[in-house]
Amino acid sequence: MPQLKRTATGVLGGIAGLVGLSAIAGILVTATVTPAIAVSGYAASSALDTFENMPGFLQIDPLMLPTEMYRKDANGNDALMAEFYDQNRIPVTFDQVNPVMYDAITSSEDKNFYTHGGVDLVGTLSALVGNASNGSNRGGSSITQQYVKNVLQQNCESKAQNSDEVAACYATTTANQGSEGYQRKLQEMRYAIQLEKQYSKDEILLGYLNITNFGGLVYGIGAAAQHYFGVSAADLTIAQAATIAGMVQAPNVYRIDMPEGSTTDKAGNPVNSQADGYSLTLDRRNYVLGRMLANGKISQQEYDDAMASPITPNITNRSQGCQNATGAEFFCEYVRTILLKDPAFGADDDTRAANLRRGGMKIYTTLDPTLQDEGLKAISIVPAHVDYMNLGASAVQVEVGTGRILSMVQNRPFSTDDAAVNAPTTQVNYNVREENGGGGGHSAGSTYKIFSLLNWLEQGHSVNETLNGRIGPKKVDQCDGTIQNVVAGNNGNGQIGNFENNSGYVGTVYNFTRDSLNSGFLTMAEKISVCSTNRLAMKMGVMTGSGGALDTTNYAYNVLGDQAVAPIDMAQVYASVAAKGTLCPSKAIDKAIDAQGKDITPQITCQPAMSEAVAATAAYTLQGVMTGTGSGAQIGDGIPVFGKTGIHEYLHTWMDGSSTKVATVVWVGNVEGTDLLSDHSENGYVLSRIRNSIWPAMQGAANAKYGGDRFPDPDTALTKRQLTDLPSVIGMTVSQAQQTLSTAGFSVTVGDPVDGTEAAGTIIQQDPGAGKVAGGTTVTIRPSNGQGIAVPAVSGKPADAVANLKAQGFSNVGQQCTASPTADDNGTVTGTDPAAGTVVNRGTQITVQYQAKNCGGRP
Predict the structure, then answer these.
(1) Are 281 and 228 a contacting pair, CB within 8 Å?
(2) 3-class SS at 11?
(3) 662-670 and 652-658 beta bridge pairing
(4) Three-state secondary structure call for residue 477
(5) Are 110 and 99 in contact (CB under 8 A)?
(6) pLDDT band at 259 (very low <50, low <70, confident <90, very high)
(7) Rounded to whole angstroms, how far apart are CA atoms 23 and 191?
(8) Other CB atoms within 10 A of residue 185 CB
(9) pLDDT at 297
(10) pLDDT by residue (tens digit) across 385-429?
(11) Do residues 850 and 827 lie in contact, with contact meaning Cβ atoms separated by under 8 Å?
């Protein structure tokens, strides 16, 4: 058992060591600086001063520790998901190490550890004399000196940015030769003596065992015991402790975890067999056991038993990297990119990379085990590989009101070995942007129409405003002073068609959204510019999958979702609508703690992205989609949800939606290539509709766990029926009238021609007439047939009036008498039926009306 307290002998040994070393130091420094000059008393005194003026304070930086990433398990406990490290280290306290380990290391490396003052003069002098005589770089260092060397090397390596810099750290702290070696040894001794004044022996010994290398990436006794023998440091046997203690002199010579035993022999030659490799280690172990026996640390029986035991490794590899995050590898990789990019984890890229692999952080993630497992089941309906296309599928879920990522899944398993096109595995995360390990995103299709809807509402328009959503020419503002003329049609040749060749209709924005009517949304774009819609999307955190701006081109096609975006960005948008307009950036880390226990969690701030009125009305409108194009994804559990479908040229298909608690976004499509989803089926689903299996399964699982409330009622001002100015088309040709009314958003019916004096084809009737009417009203127009004639005014005697009318071409003229005692005997004309000025056909019957005293017997 190592001594727990420093003794008087130890203190006196330190004083004697300092005095004796000072004398030696004077000679050595003088020999180093002026080897060709005889060492005078003055020179020796000067060298002594030089030694004593060397830096004495050694800054001991934090140990390089693995970063650990956690997720919740099914019981709600934190479970290790992945680790990242340059040095495999498990720090231990003094009481967590079997005392035989202390005995083994002190017996073999520094038997006088508990009695000297930091420097073993005899061993050091012997080593230095040997170095001076043959140019070698022998040891002879005390454990304290070895600790100093390890601290210096660790401090250096913790700042190294590449393997060359790591090698340079080793060279400057360990492998110096000649005069530089002397200088290094002197400085090492100076630090060691000072350390003995600052720390107890036990603290130094524990520090040494926690920092030193035990072969490969294994550092510290905790990791060494676990790696080589599969036990904790507290459970090491005498033989195991002696084996590990023997490694420190030449870690990569004596390691026992290589397929063929140790890597090299003492001369640096490769070892050709496991037996030979273990033989080197066995010899070294037995030496350590002999020293332990000689120093009285073990009994003869313990020595005999340990000597008789073979070296029996139980290699327990500590895997690192996201390939260990079974079932959540892509999410793990996403979190890793955050650790490498977020300033919360370091001021620059190099610092963040170092902190990830050396900083000993503990990262607690947001992943929900239930939703992740259900997501993996749901997405598995899409095969990981098919021969006929490069088929991908992914889904992500975020918590409404927090942005916490609850699940992230895709159809292909994770692997770093997927160089082949259309491989059955991938390292590309289909849910995220390129900078986070994604592939550049996917064309959003009609799920992007949510931005037109929100833009429409933010500009004060009602979802019950009626527009002409029929196919035909559209004039879309491109925001650069030009108008893009596009044709909404189903005939190809550059036309923008509707789903299933719908010809469109005059209707409300609510119905356009429900039916995902492309021609209707292009009509909306005539009133709200494309750039304002794209900029609204960016305001809500959406960029292209490659990180670029969405408003660089502002083509009319943009409002229909032709630009590639990342599903995770779309998820936070749909969640913001469900959160009454509060936008929360996607959040993968619940808590982050550094090696010193400081909370370094990135601060995610939720901000209002729209008014509650706009959010409520958008949610109301998107709920209608679940009775329209989204009806195939209905869940039927009674939890209110809204959604939006999207298909981009049958290359990509989406289903985005949310409850008041969780938003779910699903994508299925071409990873690359132009194969049509509509041409293929899997598991009974046409690929363009297979989203209708995935989305309800995942959203249903979220509903079952998190529940959901009814959405707020829509805003009355944003749902009111609005009157629209109906223009007059009287006097226009039929085609002119149709164009004018359609452009104004009205349906048009052309009635039968009517009698008119105007040229045939001229509109002479309109019903309803010009004025304020409900938008989208059907207007009936009737053209002139060119056969009309106005009934002339007639007077005088009835016979004269009849003759006059017949003379003007009316062939069917009659009379109607009304008796009046004051009338003329021959009768007086009072008017006609139809009245004078009425336009009628020449064959229309005209009745001359007159008064007479006696109507009887008159013709």
Answers:
(1) no
(2) helix
(3) antiparallel
(4) strand
(5) no
(6) low
(7) 17
(8) 23
(9) 97
(10) 999 999 999 999 999 999 999 999 999 999 987 667 888 999 999
(11) yes
CA–CA separation, 323 and 346 (whole Å): 25
C-alpha span between 604 and 344 (Å, rounded): 11
Tokens of 833: 């039926």
Dump pLDDT digits (tens) for 480-535: 778 888 888 777 777 888 887 888 888 999 999 999 999 999 999 999 999 999 99
Tokens of 814: 């009659």
| C-alpha to C-alpha distance for 60 and 158, rounded to whole angstroms | 11
Q: Which residues contact 130 (CB under 8 A, 6 or more apart)?
A: 136, 138
Measured in residues, the chain has a length of 859
Cis peptide leading into residue 640 (ω within 30°): no
How far is it, in rounded angstroms, from Cα 184 to Cα 173?
7
Q: Is 478 helix (H, G, I), strand (E, B) or coil?
A: coil
Q: Tokens 């304020």 label which residue?
A: 772
Of the candidates 201, 205, 206, 223, the residue with the CA atom closest to the CA atom of residue 214: 223
CA distance 31 to 132: 10
Amino acid symbol at 29? V
167: three-class secondary structure by DSSP: helix
Angle at 262 between CA 259 and CA 265, to 5 degrees: 140
Pairing outcome for strands 88-89 and 218-219: parallel
Name the pLDDT band for 14 (thresholds 50, 70, 90). very low
**Of 136, 156, 135, 143, residue with least CA distance to 113:** 143
Distance CA(711)–CA(733), nearest Å, equals: 49
Report the C-alpha dihedral over residues 332, 336, 339, 342, rounded to 10 degrees.
Answer: -90
The span from the CA of 375 to the CA of 844, in Å, is 78
Residue identified by tokens 């249903």 is: 700
What is the radius of gyration, based on Cα positions, of the chain?
45
- Alpha-carbon distance of 240 to 229, in angstroms, equals 8
Cα–Cα dist 528/540, whole Å? 18
Peptide bond into 727 cis (omega under 30): no
pLDDT score recorded for residue 472: 85
H runs (alpha helix) in 633-769: 691-706, 734-743
**Residue 790 in contact with residue 740, Cβ under 8 Å?**
no
Residue 175, Cβ neighbours under 10 Å: how many?
12
Pick from 432, 438, 513, 527: which is nearest to 475 by CA? 527
Q: How does DSSP assign 239-292, residue by residue?
A: HHHHHHHHHTTSHHHH---STTSSSB-TTSPBP-SHHHHHHHHHHHHHHHHHHH
Q: Is the peptide bond before 310 cis (omega within 30 degrees of 0)?
A: no
Residue type for position 842: R
pLDDT band with cut points at 50, 70 and 90 for residue 670: very high
Closest CA to 297 of 516, 1, 50: 1
Residue 295 backbone dihedrals phi, psi, to 5 degrees = -90, 5
Pairing mode, strands 391-399 and 405-410: antiparallel
Looking at the chain, the number of H-run helices and the number of E-run strands are: 25, 31
Amino acid at 801: A
Q: How many CB atoms lie within 10 A of CB 807?
A: 9
Residues forming a β-bridge with 84: 67
In which element (H, E) is residue 211 found? helix 201-211
Q: Is the dihedral of CA 700, 704, 707, 709 positive or negative?
A: positive
Can you read off the two tokens belonging to residue 706?
A: 């998190």
Please give the structure tokens belonging to residue 609. Answer: 């992205």
- Which of 455-464, 694-703, 714-723 bottoms out in mean pLDDT, i.e. has the lowest? 714-723
Under the banding of pLDDT at 50, 70 and 90, the label for residue 438 is very high
β-bridge partners, 833: 847
Tokens 């020179």 sit at which residue?
43
Q: Which long-range contacts (CB under 8 A, 24 or more apart) does 124-130 make?
A: 124/21, 124/24, 124/185, 124/189, 125/24, 128/24, 128/28, 128/182, 128/185
Tokens of 325: 């995050």
